Amino acid sequence: HDHGINPMTEIADRVVLPKVLPSTPPDVSITLEKRIYSSMTRVPHIWTAHVQHTSFISGSPPSAYPPLLVAKIFDPTFVDSEISDYTDPLALRDKSVSWTVVPRFYGHFIAPLPSQQNRTVNVILMEYVQGTDPRILVPHEIAQTSIIVRALTVFFDVYALGVVQRDMQPRNIILRPQQQHCMDLRMVMVDFEVVEFKEPDSDFSERSKQIEYINSNLKETYISRWLESAMI
Fold this sequence. Notes:
alpha+beta; 2 domains; two-stranded antiparallel ribbon; Protein kinase domain-containing protein; Kinase-like_dom_sf
């Protein structure tokens, strides 16, 4: 950072300044397939979506989209203006982190609604994460602890980048299929509806410090809370 510039001011500028984003590329056709259940209130429509490439017609090179994605449809009409700066996906685009512990991010696009005089909504395209919802798992006590501890390390991986998850519940975590002979639980945080932004803190990116903090401050509290949530 340059001297004299408050790092938090830079983060705030990236969060709230409006962005002008392109519409869907002409060589890509996106078709909604299956609606996904969600407890979210600010982004109520979540679908699996198939992506078809038409570049062989236009002559342009194929796009980098996988054939199956998740589309989150965000309608600004139903968002309170007082919180729109913090929930508008266009405003939060610079905070999207495509990493192993969050879904890969493929962009925001503008989509018209023909049935509503082509009024536009915003569509967020994200990786479709294959895996298991921890709420349906009924493991032994040691496995319960392992799942919760691993989920909390994911929390701190994201926290270290300046994003604070304020809705740390099992419904917001997906357990990826395990590779053979792999003892590490591969978890992904898939929902960022209720987050806050802070200055990044690299101290929490170190796994040893994460585990130390979890064991001394968080684990026992989250074990009881997560087991209650898992039964809902």
